[in-house]
Every structure is written in structure tokens, then in C-alpha cells.
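Section handout 9: paired folding examples.
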Amino acid sequence: MPRLSLVLLALLGLVPVVTPAGRAAPGVVSAASPEAAAAGREILERGGNAIDAAVAVAFSLAVTEPAMSGLGAGIQILLQGPHRDPLVINGTSRAPAVMPAGITAADLTGHRATTVPSTVRTLDYAWRRHGSGRLAWADLLAPAIRSAEEGFVIGAFRHKVLTRTAASLRTHPSGAALTLNPDGSVPAVGTVWKQPVLARTLRRLATHGADDFYRGEIARDIAADMAANDGWITADDLARLPEPREQPALRGTYRGWDVATLAPPASGWVVLQILNVLERSPSGELAPGAPTRDARLVEALAIGHTSNQRSPVHDMADPVAESAGRISKETAAELLAAVRARNPGETTHFSLVDGDGLAVAVTTSINNYYGAQVASPSLGFLYNDYMHEFVLDDPNHPFALRGSALPFSSMSAMILSRGGVPRMAVGSPGSARIISAVSQVVQLWADGQADIAAAVAAPRWHLIPPNRLYSEADTPGWRERFAPHGWTFPSVPTDLVTDGRNAYYGGVHAIAWEHDRWTGAADPRRDGAVETAAPR
């Protein structure tokens, strides 16, 4: 076929994009640890597709970034190939089916803070349904097993998180044994940290398959550990955890870009609403350095975060339909007009793409740093503490705690496309700061005001309704500008600051099509990395 025809077909997404040498364009991985990014590159270079690589990255993060994710986590996967509808694999965890009456916040500690882990089942489902078929399940776990057996180097950000959490971890011997030195001290930056117990669990998963986590030996260990520590998860909860739901992505637009994101119980609809509000302003008013930028961003963030608090989506059976009104352009105009009339834990995210243009954005979490901070001594992974994300005092709330309920999540992974071809994938950890971070990175990149690396590195705003406002840049005079409008300015933790950037404001890992190739950006606020696979 003539080269011109190949190029035209590639631009239409009908064949893989090719390099001048005729080889498939390389895949790119941006993830929150160097080891996980390298695992994704390894799988791509072995012939796996983006889903195969995503499974390897997620398991590697479970080993090398245990404060954020792990085998005890929940997960959401957003994927889109050229000229395919975007799809969500909803791997949200669930509350135990049976719990005592009258639960209070004080009850949600240790093993009782944990929802039924769904990550292993979701990754297995994604591999079986959407993987390339060229690599075995065990192949995808191999990089994580190596990192657990041979160790990984503790980076500066991971050391800071350990230092922050060490005092609490010391009160939970099972969690401390997995994360701290035998004397309870924090491993130094550069320490090679090995996890032999977790390695054994991963090897069993590689050999016996994911079902062992839910119906086999691993499931029996989890159930026994829960029973011995007053936890509520039972063997039946594990065995009856349903396969993840495939559902259409929630879809919107921003200045000509098609935007796909996660539907509730995740919070992608909030980011779409914020982008709709920002779209009401000319892009020049949002440009870095423009005198109007800060006010417009704060205005849009306030509208979105307030909507999230006051108007949550109730229908988890059909969340896309109920979200439609919230993400309409008309709703954004009405909310913005109303505002102007009145006013004269923790998570991990990775993004990757393969040589065929299949883009994947994955957010996985054990909720707060180190989750529930407890673990089965025989399995080597920490349980999540997603029980804290339920509402306890309003039985009619969509996120009220009840048997098998889905917890609230701020996850907001996004894929931007044009003409049906993905061109950017993005997401972040950071609880509600996810919404703020993703909104600002998408705006800068989609408006052409920054390449992906600069958009990810740019200082960010965050706010908590009704009146708390935070600025990472802390430029002179910003408090004086906003104080007359009723904002207050609480301080934020500074123990996670690296080179003037604060991990409080998220940890975005993104990929984007720039200058006729895919490139990636790892948030400089964290220990992440970008890897590019060699062209096939």
C-alpha cells in the first residue's frame, strides 16, 4: 500500500500509526512509580496491548506504591480505541453484605474499615475480555513478583508518605510489619525494600488464577483474618462479589474535544460540569498569566465541588442517565449565572497507550494512605478503608451505608478524543483534589496553553465548599483578592513538598498525542515515571 494511503488510514485510526521506518508507533506509560512504568513498557514490548500492560502496571503499583493501592483495593478502568466507543470497567468495591445495626464512625477502624476488595477480580476480567490474548496471566504478574522478591528502591515521595504515616502504622503491627523496619523506624530513601510474603501471594495468584483470591486459599486466609480481628467481610462476601460491570463512559465535550470519563459512584461528572463552566469564558481569559485566570478557575471549581456536595447522583443502576442534566451546557450556564448574581487519601492513577492507539486510564485506591493500615500476616497486602466513604447519618443518601452498597469515590479518569481517535488520557489521586487537578490539567492542554508536561507541572487551585480556598502557587496578593468574596485560607500540609510543588494537590499521570507522537507526563510532585516502549 502506498505510504500516503497508510498515513491517511493511520490518521483515521484504521491501522496502527507508523513511524518513518514503517514500524508501529511505540506505546507510552505514565505511572506513579518507576517500577510500574517499566512493567508496562515491558509488557508492551513483549506484544501485549494496553490492557495487558495496565494489568501489569496495577500489580506493580500494588508492590511499589502500597500506600495508594494494592490487592486490597478498588479500581476503575476507562479505555478507548480508535473509532470505538469509550468504555468503563467499573471495579468499585462493595460494603460487606451483613453488618451490625447502628454503626458509627468510631466502629470503622482496622478490619472493619474495609470494603470487599475488587481489584484482582477486575484486572482478571479486563485481561480476559480485552487483553491481546498473546500473553498469559502469569506473564502480567511477573514484573510485580520480581519487585516483591528482589525489592524496589524507596523514592523520596514514598519516603515522605511513610514518614507522615509511621506513627499511625506503629499502632497496627500487621501493617507496620509490611512498611517499616523491624524496630519501627522508617526505611531511608534509597532502601531496597523486599516483600517476601506479598511475593508468595502474587505467585499463588499467578499459578492458580484470580479466583483463588475469592474462592480459594487466599480467600480462606482473608476470611479467617477478618474473623480473628472482628472484621465484617466473610467468605460469602468474597465468593459472591460480582464481576465488574462494563458500562458506557459518561461523555461530554470541551471546546471541540470529546471527553469520556467515569460515571458515578465516581466523580467524572463533576469535572465535566467544571469544564462546561470554564467553556463559558473565552480561552484567553484562562491563559496562564491572564489577570482573569484565577477568578475564572475558582468560580468553576466552586460550582463543581458544591454540586458534588449538594446534588449527588442517586441512581447507581443507571448513573449515566441521571448525570445527563448535570453535565449539560445549559446547566453550566444557569449555575454560572446564579453564582455571578450572588457574587458582584489516597489513590494512584496511571495512563498508557499501545502502538495501536488503544488508550487506557486507570485509577485504583485503598482510599487513605495505607488504607486501613492492617493486613493478614500470611498474605502481605494492606486492606482498604473505603467504609469511611459511606454516609452514616442519612439512610436516604445515595452513599448511605448498607449491605453491599457502593462507596463514594472522587475518581475522575478521562480520555479526550477527536474524530473518534483518543488523543489524551489523564487522571489523578488525591480525594476531592482529583476533581480540581484533572479539571485544570485538561483545560490547559485542551486550550493549547501548555503541552502535557507543563500542564501537569503547573501550580493548582483547590477549594472545599462553602468557603475554604487553597493556592499551590501562593502568589503575592491572592488572599487579598479573594477575601472580600468570603473565602478563607487554611494552611495545607507541607511535608510532601518537592521542589516547590505539593503532593496535596494531586499526582497526575497523563499521556497525550503531541508533535505526531504519543508522549507522557509524570507528576513532579510524586515518584512517578514515563516509559516509552520500543516500536514493534
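Moving on to protein 2 of 2.
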Amino acid sequence: MTDEQYDAIVVGGGHNGLVAAGYLGRAGLSVLVVEKRRTVGGAVASVRTFPGVDAHLSRYSYLVSLLPDQVVADLGLRIELRSRATASYTPVDRDGRPGGLLVERAEGPATAAAFAELTGSAAEYDSWQRFQQTAGAVAGAIAPTLLRPLPRRADLADAVRSAAGADAWQALFERPIGELVEVTFADDAVRGTVLTDAVIGEHTYAHDPTLRQNRVFLYHVVGNGTGEWRVPVGGMGAVSAELERCAREAGAEIVTGAEVREVATDGAGCTVSWVDAEGAERTATAGHVLANVSASTLARLRGRTGADEEGSQLKVNMVLERLPRLRTDVDPRTAFAGTFHIDQGYGQLEAAYRAADAGQLPDPLPAEVYCHSLTDPSILGADLVAAGWQTLTMFGLHTPARLFRDDNAGMRERALHRALAGINRHLAEPIEHCLATDANGAPCIEAKTPLDLAAELDLPGGHIFHGDLQWPHADDDTDDPWGVATDTDRLLICGSSARRGGAVSGIAGHNAAHALLARLDR
């Protein structure tokens, strides 16, 4: 057993922990990062998932929106985030006739025509444009505050009202977002296209009185003031690799294969104990610990009982020999270039929530699909690119962890079958016919339930946000100006459990580092 001393120990080498280590190291602090897995990055990773197939998939997290340009510049990250050519495509069957709603990344005549064909007039697209302008104004008011001490609620309300109009604050911060969606839009598919950003990854619904759906919506639209979800060139692993490089160059020491068993604090400092890759017990001490683990995991490491959380998503990764043809005449390279919505009509989302809340797997199962390789072919080997191979990621909604607890493997197969049935309803050929096979002759497809994510990434209940997202403001005068405090000054939260945590952002890591530097007056 050894005992080493640092200024700060970061528990967990996910992206937020690496961001914190980079900032602290650049400020001259000695920093140790302790990571359970053999590689850093956590959910921000690229994996060659299928044997013999040269495809590096973003296996867990898959797109980047909330990572501020300021963090990229501050740390000198050499990453490229590409815009997708299509924002979204929603296939819609009405009166037995297949159709769809195309939303271009830069909206133009094709988007306007798609709205008119689907809804029968220009009115719904006019409402869509006004709604997007309001959401953009709200994002513009909130985004600059995310890397600063928390604004007071009243001050943020003034900023939102000034930027987006007097009604915007009440509609998004005080009333269920379902009210705003229903008063703004008439078409079920358009309503669902908006609502999906409010329910993805959370077990919630349009009129949830807790307003969890409102918070999810805000976090999906505020990134860098635009809310655009971009594709990292080289996959998510390229992002974590750059963060690791920057942390090491800043002087941080990183230990992997180290399972932390205890975090102890007192008035003088902190002790972190872990078992290393060879099974030896190790300890290190520091003036402060930054916890890049969930609040429930941190509680356990401190010998306490953490809150129960519950994820609500199904993640499916695929490699295809070709993109499937659609029942409509839309080019699949256009339809799959953005977010491809499946069974995400407003009524369908409500019905799916009610089914899942009653303990039933939704039928149909709402989901959305992304083809990263259309935007970034580099995640595939050159031979596969030349042959026309593609990757697909599917994200299923309203699949809470409770549905899988009695029989995870069996329910995983049922959920996967239901998700594939959903996309097949809109295809001219079953997607199974397009799947590539690996070196063992097995189809290149895998599914991850919330319980799988809990086991593989230590996500509490498989919750991709570590728990319910919180408002990006302080409720009143607070002694936690950065939203990262715990019950002791020696221990800070630098992961998704922080007040402005959640998603691939680095915001929590930045804010915990700056909170510590402010205490040390550096």
C-alpha cells in the first residue's frame, strides 16, 4: 500500500473528470485521475464492437451539443464537430399513404414544401419557425451562463424574457411544455417532433407536473446557443482521446484499471482508496476530491445510501452493408443523415409513456435513428466506405429500467424486435436484410438496456443523466455558487450529477474546477 499526496484527486475518468483535470493542471495543481475501466472516457468512447469489422462505433453516447466552444478553446482540444446535412426526417403514414416530414439543417424550400404536403397549408411551418426562433432566443440567453456561477432564478427569468418575450419564461420554466406544444401546433407529427426533445432519456411525458420534461427540452436546445447536435469526426473516442491528451499535457496523472472502494473526507483533506489492475490496494490523499461519478455511487463510496435512479432508453448499434430503401421516394442518404423519427407522434409518445408506466413494453416503441457514417466516414475502414457500408445508431424511448429487472436478456430481445419492427414499417425492405455480418457470421447488431448501461458504465439505474436534470439557475441566494457542492468543502461534484451536468458537455468538469480554484484563489 502506498500513500501519495496531491492537490486534487478526480474520481472517475469520464469526459467531465478529464476536463476538470485539464483545467486544474493548467492552473498548476497536482492532479490524480483514478478510473475504474482500462480506458478513460466513460460513455464518451469509440469501440470496435463487432469481431473482424473495421467500424469504430460511438457505443454509448453518440452526438455532441452541450460542449461549449469556450472549453474546446481553453483546453486546446483538437477536435472537429461536423453538422449533419439533415436536421430530421419523420416518416408518416396517413390514410394508407406513406409520406414524411423533412427538416433540413439549413431550412429552405424543401422543408417548407414538406410541412405543406403533410399538413395541407403553410400555417404549421409558420408556427414551427416562430417556435424555433423562441427556442433559439432562450438558448442564447442561457448558454452564456453555463460556465459562470449560477444565476439567480429571478435574474435568469429577466434574461429569458428580454431575449425571447414575456411569455417564454412561464411556458418553459413554470408550465408543462405540453401546453406550449398544443397551443402552438395542430399536427400530431409536428407536435411529436418537438416533444421528443423533452422526453428522450427520461421517463416523463408532456404534462408531467414535475416539469422534468421541460428541463430535458432545455438541455437539448441550449448548447452553444444553437442547440445543434453535431457528429465528432473520428467518433466519440476522438473527443475522449483529446481530453486525455490535454489532461496529461497539463500534468495530470491518470491511473486506469483502478476500482475506487472508498472516499473519506475530514476537515484537513481527503483519502481515496482503490484496488489497482493487479489487485493491490492503493491509497492517495489530497486537499480536495472531485467526484466524476453519480451521486448514488459517491454516497456508496462514502458509506452512505444513495438515491434510486432509473434510466429509460434502449441503445442499439448496427453496421449495415447498405442503407435500406424507404417506402417513400426520399433518398435514404437524406433521410438518415439527421435524426430519423420512428413512432414519435404526439399521441404515440403519450401512449408509450402510459404503457411503460403501467409496466408494459410500448407497442409501437418510439425510437430515433442516426447514421453517423454519412457525416463522418472515417469511423469505417476505407474498404467498407468504398463498399457503401454504413453505421446506424437507434435510441429507443420509454423503456424504463423496471421493465428489464425480472429478465434483462429476454426483455432486451423483445425490445430490440419491437424497435426493428418499428423502423421496418417505413422501409421497402427489412433492415435485417441490410445488416453486415462479423467474422463469426453473426449479424452486426447489439442492444443495450438501462441495466446493461448500469453494469458497464456504473450509471445509476442506467440513467444517462445520472438522475433528473436540474434547472440551470440557483433558486435563491446560495452557498453553492457553481452548483457542484456537497456537504463538505473538501468534496465537489464534477460529473453529470452537478446542477448543470448531463450529456456530453464538460460543463460540470469546468465548473467544479473553477469552484475549487476560486476557493484556492488561483
